[in-house]
Each structure stands twice: as structure tokens, then as C-alpha cells.
């Protein structure tokens, strides 16, 4: 058998691959040449066909049959096809498998092509390239999740991340440093990232891309050139100058330019209705690196699900756009106390105005996804149902505003955040939206099909010509019904008049009944058209005339409907900014009311966020663990936590000890989550929280806890720890959970010790340090702002009871043996372990050698002054911690000391 030809072979064999191909295949080659790295969905009638390697790849990925169509260069052409009506499901699968798909449509009716001559081929063109970041169909999108396309660029040492959510038109831009790319990207969770190919090989960029996930699309670096980017951006927004967007940095322009370039190619010239870029800098949002984000399970759990995440625990929104906005806020907590307070004001107001909140939530439930509907319309992929979403959305907007007006009490003015949302929703303030609402309300019919070409959606009385054409069509249908009765009576044959797309109207009867119709005199009236197994089909002159009339009227009616749809679509784009603002306003109300709902459910309170370095949590709880503990029928123990970066109102660093399972990890994370919630503008599950804004949040878990992820090694743990020690500032919050556990005891202790000292002395950040090295308890006496905390357990009748209560002082012992007993280790083994433990404890004594250790502060003070790297720093840098034995680690510490002047 011949091996199938492939376009690659063909192009290497002949300079023009299309030479010798049939006209249709020549069209395919042309489309494929323009999109070599995408699968081409080539429209042929009711199917999208794939050819050559595309067919082989798609058949394998989709499990569809591989066939062949004709020959090329004497070899069969492999082909696979998917029906157009089911294309979405196949597309979604291919995208998830990492393919790009170029959709090549028929650009005219086959009848149209015929007019140019019997041999002419239907015109086809690529109308869109489907990539993970450019999806707009509801069937391909997660309604409650964002789908962002991001781009990164670096220029003159500064970096930027731009992103667009094509399905809603939201554009964002974040200026950062190369080192900040990982955090910035992770906050967006993009499904596709555009990278100039020059940056692709950069190690830091590569690591950031890997950590952020998503489909990485390298683009020619030339596309990120400043002047080309600027020109493309202006085209994208249809503006003469970018000044209206504020002072964009070179890197920001480049990143946005890459997005513009990608949209131009993938959308084949059709542009979405985009909002101006919303800009943020590093000074605006809390930096949370990918490892911290993952370990705190903010938006998803370590296993990748939404359930069990912080987001899932607090999300009480009732609309998909609201859910997306809440996720976006939680992903990027703010730094400005005033901005945070504005959000908290809204939540607080909805907490106080319960009835108002319930009525609002009822109204919101009926609200569709206006932003996504609008975006589809703008891209020419929308249908009457999307117009329906806009109409219903605008009507709901009015109802929402009405809710607030009717119960309006001048004494309880809603705060600015709510008032501004209501202003955006108030159609009386937006004449254009009001007019558009009226247009759709009176113009759209009750039944709305997905596609404009399905017809029947323009209401009666909107266009007189349409009503006329429809009346003609319907009248003629009535005449057909009369004709059927008359023909049956006259001929004495039991016949029916039916309709299909190929024959139009026809007379049908059984083969037996048809016999007299094919003989005189009836054959003068009935003209034979088709004989099937059991039926015979005829037409008559009268029926053919009626058929033509009906077809014409229907065609005319549909043409008018499509024309009307196009006009309404264009009108939607005219008011796009207003519609987007209304959609966003409704989402903001949904978020604030949803957070109030959650606050009431779980008894959360309003945090106080200021510019101090305080962290004072009173009776706080972990929202996710609490829910789990409660489901199991237990009570959750609230805990206080008091820290102060300045060391005044509390310790800067708390060393947290306690037996396994006592609640150390829960306590640590709970406090980190409080900071995220508070700065995102959410209430917090605590009696009270006072928080000085946290600029960077770090959370690391010792390697042992992370084995489930299968990739966390001790090395990775140390790399991540190093990142904290170099990046944490006095405004940061650091959570270290059993760092150093992944190596031998003395190694681990030495590292834990040194890290704790460095955090306290050099980074001077607020920190919680959970450890099973009880030796670290002595740091309380050695360092000014360190305190011991422990999670209590007690033995009772030989059993161990966890109180989950955090209190001052170190844990007295680790109760490891008791935990082993709880876990069901056989009694003989437990008894033996007790023996061994007693012996070890008797022999060990106090770790005197550690108490002799020179003070870290004294050591560092002399290193701090000269700016360049000191001998100590150099020596520290050169240490291969991972390759050291415990003995070598201690030696190294002494050597470091010896280097001091
Ligand atoms: P550790 O890190 O000390 O080993 P964890 O934080 O993993 O302990 O907690 C172990 C379990 O104890 C949790 O899964 C949870 O079920 C329970 N727990 C933790 N903290 C509390 C608390 N404050 N109140 C009630 N149960 C808790
Ligand atoms: Mg733990």
C-alpha cells in the first residue's frame, strides 16, 4: 500500500505544493501554508475536514475514523472529518490536547460559486485560529473561571505582563521586574502566554512560564519592537495616540503589542471590543509567588481542584461574572488601605442591609453573562441568544437600580463602591443604553435561536417588509394545506404534501397508491420526481409555483432578519463601553453581597488594614479546615496570633512547636489566609484582625509534607527558601512550615536555625516558623523579637488529646510515640519505641554547643556596612547545602564565624 502523502514531503519535493492539486485541494494548501503549525478545519458542506498529517493527528486525538479522499501525486490523501454542528466538542478536545485549530470557512453559498461557472469552487478563507487563550464560546469556557491570554515583555531591564480576557474584553497590564514575572503571571493563571522568542531561552523567564502553567506560544521578537507594537496597539483600539492609557512603559507597550499581534492573526482581522488596559504596578498588589500560591491553595488545591480551595470556601456569588471577579480579587490582594477599605465598606453595608442584600441576590440570579455575549457579538460569533442576554441584562440592571431606589433611606446612603456600581447600572444616566434596551425589548421575539441564520427572532411589527414576507410565506403554507385536500379529493389517492430541503414541497404517497398517478389521466397533473423504497414523490405545476413563492418569501424574510440582526449587533458595539461597565458593576455588587452572605454564614468580621507592621488576629479560624472539621461533627478551635514587624506590640518571629497533628500547619496557613482575605477586601474568619499591609507573602512547606506532589525535593525546598531570604522585606509575611525537615537531623536543624536568625535579623519581616526541632526554642532568649508559641496537646489516661490551642511557650515534648500509638502502630512497637526514646533522652542532655554559637546579629552587623559581597557572603554563597553532611554543616558555620573581621 502507498504511504499517504504529507504536505511536508510535498513541499520539499515540489516548489509549489498546490501544483497538480485539484482546485479544492489547492485552497487547502493555501490555508495550510499560512497556518503551518495549526490543524486546519476545512469546511466542506456540513463537515470540517482535515487532511494529510492534520487528519492523522486529529484522528488519533479524537478517536475518529481516518479515511481518504482522492489522490495527490498518485497517493491517497488521508482525511478525517467532524460534523459542523458538533464541532465545538471536538474543538475543545483538540485545544485541551495542546493543538491550535485554524477554521477555514466557506465564504459564499455554493449557488453563488456556480454562477461563476460550473467548475468554480466555493471561496474559502481562514476566519479564525482557535487557541487556548482566545476562546469565546460558552461551551469551551468555564463560566465561573477566567480564560486569559497573557504576554510578557522585557525592555531596558523592566518587565511587563499584559493580559486580555477575550471573552469579556478586559485588558490588564502589570509593570514588574524580570524577577517579579513569576508572581505576576501566577496571579493571572493564564491559559496561554505569548513570549518573544528571544526571551524564551532566558532562565528566569523560563521558570516563570513553567510555574504559571498554560500554553506557551513563542512569537518572533520583532513583533515586540516598540514602534511596531505601538502602531498595532493604536489599530487595536482605533486611537491616534496611546496617551489616554497613561504613561505606558516600553515593556508594557511591547507586551500589549504582542497581544494585539496575536489577536490580529487569530481573529483574522475581527477585533473584540476591548476595555482600555487597566494598569497596576508592583506597588499596587501583594506579591505572591507561584509556590506560595500553590501551597496556600488559594484558587485551587494542590491536586488541582477548586473544591477545598480558599476561593471555593468563601464564594457565595450567584453570577458567573461575579465568581470570576471574586477569583481575580483573591488572586491579587491590594496594598492600598484606602482601596481595601472601599471594598470592605461595600461588604459591611450588605452585612447591615440584609433584606436589601437578599433582594439583590434574587435579581442577580437572572442576570446572564453580558460581557461574554457582547464579546462574541463583536467578534462576529454571536447570535440572537446573545442579544437576548444583553436585553435581559439591561432589564435586570434597571430592576437592581429600582431595588435601591424604592427602599432608599437618605440616612443609609450606600458607600461609594456600591453607589458607583448603581450609577453604571442606572439606564436613566445612560441614554444610549436605555435606547438600546428599548430597541431589543421591542425588537427581539420570544424564541431566540443560537444562530442568526436560523431566523424567527425578530418580533412582529418591527419591520413591515418582514411582516409582509412572513405573511406571504404563511399564507402560501395555508394554500398548500388547501391544495393537499383538493388534490386528494380530485385524484381519490391518499396523498400528503411534504417538504424537505432538497425537493422543496412535494406530493407523496405509497408506491401502490402511486400507480394510477403515473397513468392517464392523473399523470397530466402529477409530475414524477422521485421513487423511494416505499414512497413515490410528485409535484404539480401549481405546487411548484407555490413552492417557489414560499421559498422566495422565506428567503426574503430571513434576509431581512439577518440584516436586522447585523444592525442590532453593530448597535451593541456602539454601546460596548457602557455594557461592559454595567456588566462589571453587577459583578461588583454580586461579589460584595456574596462576601457579606459568607461573612454572616461563618461569622466573619471586618478587618482593620493600615500601614503599620502589626498582625493581631483574635480568635481566628482557617476557613477551609474549619468547614472540614465541622462536617466531621467536631468543633474548630479559634486561635490568636500576634506579631509585629517593629517588635513593639508583639514578636517579629514566632517559633511554633507542638506534636505532629497538633495543628501547626493549620495555624500557619490560617494566618496567611487572613492576610490574603483582608487585603482582597473580604471579611475575615476571626473575632478581630488588625493588619499592617503585607507587601509580599511567602509560604514554604518542608519537603516531607509535599511528597504527594512527587516533585518536591530538599533541593527545591532550599531554592525556595533562598528566594524568601533574598526577597522578604520588613513589610512581608513569611510562613515556614518545618523547613529543613527533608534532610538529616543536624543538617536540618542547622539550616532551620540559620534561616530563623536571618529572617529575624536581616529580613526583619513578620514570620511564623513551625518546626519539630525543639532546639530552636532557645532563640527566644537569644534574639530580641522572637517568641515561642506552641500548639497544645495533653495526655489523658495514656491517650493523647490534641487541643489545637496555640499558647505561649515551647512544646514540652513531641509526643511522636503517642501519635504512633494513635495511628495504630502495633503495641509491641510502641512499647519498644518508648524504651529507645527514654534511653536517648537520658544520654543526649542539653545542646550546649548550640548555646555557644555566636550571635547572628553580631555576625551580620559587621557584614552589613560595606555594600559589595563580603567574604562571609561569598563563603555563604559557595556553600553546597544539599551536598553537606551534618558535620560539614557545623564546620561551615564555624568557618563562617572565622571569616568575621
Ligand atoms: P501539624 O502541622 O501540627 O501536624 P495540622 O495543622 O496538619 O497539624 O493539623 C492536623 C489536623 O488537626 C487537621 O487536619 C485538622 O483536622 C485538625 N486541626 C488543626 N487545627 C485545628 C483547630 N484549630 N481546631 C480543630 N481542629 C484542628
Ligand atoms: Mg504540619
Care to describe what's here?
This protein has 34 helices and 27 strands. It has 901 residues and is an alpha/beta fold. 46% of the residues lie in helices and 18% in strands. It folds into six domains: 7-130, MutS, DNA mismatch repair protein, domain I (3-Layer(aba) Sandwich); 141-282, MutS, connector domain (Nucleotidyltransferase, domain 5, 2-Layer Sandwich), CATH 3.30.420; 314-458 and 565-600, Orthogonal Bundle (MutS, DNA mismatch repair protein, Chain A, domain 3), CATH 1.10.1420.10; 464-560, MutS, DNA mismatch repair protein, Chain A, domain 3, CATH 1.10.1420.10; 605-818, P-loop containing nucleotide triphosphate hydrolases (Rossmann fold); 826-864. The longest helix has 34 residues, at 541-574. Mean pLDDT is 87; it is low at 1-15 and 705-712. Bound molecules: adenosine-5'-diphosphate and magnesium ion. Adenosine-5'-diphosphate (ADP) binds next to helix 24 and helix 25.
Amino acid at each position: 500500500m502507498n504511504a499517504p502523502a504529507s504536505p511536508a514531503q510535498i513541499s520539499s519535493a515540489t516548489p509549489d505544493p498546490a501544483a497538480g492539486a485539484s482546485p479544492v485541494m489547492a485552497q487547502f494548501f493555501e490555508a495550510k501554508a499560512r497556518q503551518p503549525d495549526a490543524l486546519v478545519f476545512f469546511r466542506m458542506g456540513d463537515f470540517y475536514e482535515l487532511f494529510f498529517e492534520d487528519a492523522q493527528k486529529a484522528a488519533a486525538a479524537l478517536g475518529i475514523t481516518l479515511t481518504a479522499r482522492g489522490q495527490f501525486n498518485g497517493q491517497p490523501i488521508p482525511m478525517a472529518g467532524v460534523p459542523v454542528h458538533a464541532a465545538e466538542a471536538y474543538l475543545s478536545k483538540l485545544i485541551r490536547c495542546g493543538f491550535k485549530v485554524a477554521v477555514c470557512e466557506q465564504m459564499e453559498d455554493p449557488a453563488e460559486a456556480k454562477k461563476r461557472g460550473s467548475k468554480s469552487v466555493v471561496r474559502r478563507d481562514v476566519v479564525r485560529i482557535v487557541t487556548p487563550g482566545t476562546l469565546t464560546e460558552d461551551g469551551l469556557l468555564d463560566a465561573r473561571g477566567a480564560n486569559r491570554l497573557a504576554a510578557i515583555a522585557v525592555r531596558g531591564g523592566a518587565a511587563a505582563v499584559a493580559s486580555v480576557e477575550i471573552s469579556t474584553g478586559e485588558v490588564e497590564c502589570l509593570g514588574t521586574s524580570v524577577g517579579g514575572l513569576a508572581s505576576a503571571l501566577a496571579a493571572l493563571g493564564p491559559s496561554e502566554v505569548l513570549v518573544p522568542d528571544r526571551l524564551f531561552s532566558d532562565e528566569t523567564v523560563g521558570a516563570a512560564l513553567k510555574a504559571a502553567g498554560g500554553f506557551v506560544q513563542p512569537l518572533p521578537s520583532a513583533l515586540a519592537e516598540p514602534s511596531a507594537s505601538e502602531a498595532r496597539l493604536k489599530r487595536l483600539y482605533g486611537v491616534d495616540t496611546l496617551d489616554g492609557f497613561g504613561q505606558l512603559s516600553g515593556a508594557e507597550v511591547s507586551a500589549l503589542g504582542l497581544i494585539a499581534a496575536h489577536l490580529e492573526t487569530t481573529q483574522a482581522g475581527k477585533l473584540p471590543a476591548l476595555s482600555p488596559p487597566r494598569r497596576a504596578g508592583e506597588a499596587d498588589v501583594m506579591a505572591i509567588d507561584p509556590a506560595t500560591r500553590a501551597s496556600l491553595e488559594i484558587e485551587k488545591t494542590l491536586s488541582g481542584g477548586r473544591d477545598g480551595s480558599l476561593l471555593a470556601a468563601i464564594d457565595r456569588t450567584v453570577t458567573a461574572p461575579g465568581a470570576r471577579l471574586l477569583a481575580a480579587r483573591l488572586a491579587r490582594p491590594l496594598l492600598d488601605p484606602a482601596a481595601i477599605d472601599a471594598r470592605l465598606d461595600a461588604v459591611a453595608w450588605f452585612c447591615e442591609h440584609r433584606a436589601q442584600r437578599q433582594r439583590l441576590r434574587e435579581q442577580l440570579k437572572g442576570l446572564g453573562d453580558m460581557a461574554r455575549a457582547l464579546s462574541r457579538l463583536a467578534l462576529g460569533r454571536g447570535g440572537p441568544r446573545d442579544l437576548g442576554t444583553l436585553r435581559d441584562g439591561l432589564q435586570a440592571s434597571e430592576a437592581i437600580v429600582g431595588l435601591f431606589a424604592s427602599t432608599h433611606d437618605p440616612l443609609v446612603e450606600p458607600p461609594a463602591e456600591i453607589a458607583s456600581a448603581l450609577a453604571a447600572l442606572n439606564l436613566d444616566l445612560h441614554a444610549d443604553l436605555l435606547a438600546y434596551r428599548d430597541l431589543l425589548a421591542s425588537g427581539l421575539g420570544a424564541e431566540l435561536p443560537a444562530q442568526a441564520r436560523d431566523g424567527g427572532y425578530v418580533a412582529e411589527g418591527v419591520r413591515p417588509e418582514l411582516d409582509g414576507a412572513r405573511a406571504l410565506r404563511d399564507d402560501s403554507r395555508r394554500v398548500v394545506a388547501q391544495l393537499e385536500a383538493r388534490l386528494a379529493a380530485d385524484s381519490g389517492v391518499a396523498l400528503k404534501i411534504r417538504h424537505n430541503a432538497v425537493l422543496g414541497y412535494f406530493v407523496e404517497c405509497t408506491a401502490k397508491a402511486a400507480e394510477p398517478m403515473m397513468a392517464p389521466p392523473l399523470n397530466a397533473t402529477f409530475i414524477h420526481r422521485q421513487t423511494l423504497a416505499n414512497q413515490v414523490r410528485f409535484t404539480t405545476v401549481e405546487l411548484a409555483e407555490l413552492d417557489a413563492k414560499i421559498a422566495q418569501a422565506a428567503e426574503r424574510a430571513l434576509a431581512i432578519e439577518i440584516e436586522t440582526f447585523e444592525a442590532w449587533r453593530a448597535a451593541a458595539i456602539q454601546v460596548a463601553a457602557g455594557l461592559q461597565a454595567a456588566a462589571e458593576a453587577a459583578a461588583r455588587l454580586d461579589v460584595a453581597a456574596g462576601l457579606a452572605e459568607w461573612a454572616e454564614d461563618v461569622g466573619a468580621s471586618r478587618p482593620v488594614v493600615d500601614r503599620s507592621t502589626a498582625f493581631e488576629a483574635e480568635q481566628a479560624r482557617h476557613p477551609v479546615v474549619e468547614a472540614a472539621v465541622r462536617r466531621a461533627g467536631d468543633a474548630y478551635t479559634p486561635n490568636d496570633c500576634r506579631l509585629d514587624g517593629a517588635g513593639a506590640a508583639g514578636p517579629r518571629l514566632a517559633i511554633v512547636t507542638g506534636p505532629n497533628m497538633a495543628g501547626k500547619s493549620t495555624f500557619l496557613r490560617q494566618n496567611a489566609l487572613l492576610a490574603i482575605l483582608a487585603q482582597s477586601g473580604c471579611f475575615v474568619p476571626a473575632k478581630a484582625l488588625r493588619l499592617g499591609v503585607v507587601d509580599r507573602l511567602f509560604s514554604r512547606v518542608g519537603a516531607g509534607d509535599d511528597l504527594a506532589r512527587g516533585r518536591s525535593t530538599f533541593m527545591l525546598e532550599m531554592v525556595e527558601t533562598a528566594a524568601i531570604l533574598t526577597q522578604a522585606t520588613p513589610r512581608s509575611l513569611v510562613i515556614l512550615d518545618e523547613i529543613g525537615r527533608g534532610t538529616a537531623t543536624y543538617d536540618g536543624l542547622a539550616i532551620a536555625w540559620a534561616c530563623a536568625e536571618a529572617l529575624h535579623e536581616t529580613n526583619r519581616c513578620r514570620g511564623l516558623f513551625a518546626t519539630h526541632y525543639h532546639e530552636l526554642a532557645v532563640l527566644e532568649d537569644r534574639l530580641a523579637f522572637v517568641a515561642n508559641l506552641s500548639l497544645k496537646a495533653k495526655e489523658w489516661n495514656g491517650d493523647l488529646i490534641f487541643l489545637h490551642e496555640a499558647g505561649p511557650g515551647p512544646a514540652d515534648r513531641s509526643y511522636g510515640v503517642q501519635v504512633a500509638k494513635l495511628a495504630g502502630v502495633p503495641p509491641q512497637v510502641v512499647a519498644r519505641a518508648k524504651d529507645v526514646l527514654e534511653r536517648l533522652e537520658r544520654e543526649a542532655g542539653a545542646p550546649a554547643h548550640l548555646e555557644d554559637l555566636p550571635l547572628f546579629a553580631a555576625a551580620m552587623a559587621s557584614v552589613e556596612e560595606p555594600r559589595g559581597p563580603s567574604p562571609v557572603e561569598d563563603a555563604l554563597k559557595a556553600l553546597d547545602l544539599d551536598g553537606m553532611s551534618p558535620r560539614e554543616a557545623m564546620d561551615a558555620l564555624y568557618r563562617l564565624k572565622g571569616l568575621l573581621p
